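Lecture 7 notes: from sequence to structure.
We start with the chain below.
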Amino acid sequence: MRGEQPHPNDMPPMPETSRSQRVIPIQPLYAAEPKVYPRSVKGLFQSWRWVFLWLTQIVFYGLCWLPWNGRQAVLFDLDTRRFYVFDLVLWPQDTIYLAVLLVLSALALFLFTTVAGRLWCGYTCPQTVYTEIFLWLEKLVEGDRPKRIKLDAAPWSARKLGIKGSKHLLWLLLSLWTGFTFVGYFTPIRELWQAVLSLSQSGWETFWILFYAGATYGNAGFMREQMCKYICPYAQFQFVMFDPDTLIVAYDEKRGEPRGGRSKKLAAAVTAATDPKSQGDCIDCGICVQVCPTGIDIRDGLQLECIGCAACIDACDQVMDKISQPRGLIRYSTENAVKQQFTRATILRRTLRPRVLIYSAIFLSLLGATAGSLATRVPLKLDIQRDRAALATETAEGAIENTFRLQLINASEKTRIYRVAIDGLEGIHLAQPLDVEVAPAATASATARVQLEPGSAASGSHPVRFIATDTTDSAVTVTERAMFWIP
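Predicted structure tokens for the same chain:
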């Protein structure tokens, strides 16, 4: 019969080839993917994304310009090795708070992911936020999705070059301002601004401004969804924290299938759920795919590439409105809720499961302990070193004397005078009264000569205590131990 394919057994045998003649196909390291052109969408969740976008960027771009006690409110001053966070001044000795902050961030990420999936990725992740800003600029210059596709497919011309150049110029300006702002958290930003205007900034400041600007420009302008799909480690292990009761962006397959075009006049009661032969609510318009920033089809189920932005929910809800069907074909739900048609009350009740309670308890306990430590933190640190030239000496009056080097750190932003005292052995005293004045957020050194009458204690090392107290505020006091040596 014409067009009939021959049976494999009827085909002539292939000539044998030597092992060296066999052609082995080359496997690429990665499959090339078409460029994603996200379609603009409006809706409840898109509005929330813009709210978080504005909040995060107002904080990032504005906080470094906020004055506070004669300096900027938040400054990580690496030159002086001091971190300023409003009234809080942290020193290198306070790195424990940085470690705790990282642990709290990890616990918060685990907790929020277990409860509500990738909300961080969809609403506040810098990659998502800056990609959204860059897409907005791209739409402003090149137009919406169809115009961008048409422009990219068109041959190069003066018009295309001008449009593309304008877009990249806006991207570069935003990236440079972002890099400048980032460095402004480590160098006082007003000083940095004057230095940049006069081209007198240091080499490392120039490097980090350009480095962070380049990262923003490349990640948000070109890599975009590739960062989320292949590079971001969070995307790779997020499913470890998911369970069937985790809130995700879900497609209701029972309601939507079988797909296909439909008339607006089709009765809403006749659906795939009530009549298996009827048409499902999904009209297979593909808009949910067009609006996805990572280019996936949510109807294929939960995927690693889904960042939980809910753009597909807003798009699908608009389509459902047009065909007079109830919203929620694509919605925030859980795997169990979609399969078993749980109510919202049931979904909320199943949120309180063991792993969520454990994460919450650990997070709240650590957060409370950290907050309590900061609230009761004394803005004074005292370091003591023994004079290594001589363990003990004898004064003209016959007393035994040990010499110590004191370093006092004033962790507040006002000048303080600290009075130093000592106890721990009967009759021990300072050779002379010792008051040390320390400037705001500064350190000061002093020498303490400690004396003890002979015969007051046995030979050897004896623990003593140095006590430093603010002369105007007795609540600001610290105690440090040292060893007094008797020959």
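Points to note: The radius of gyration is 34 Å. Residues 4 and 10 are 12 Å apart (CA to CA).
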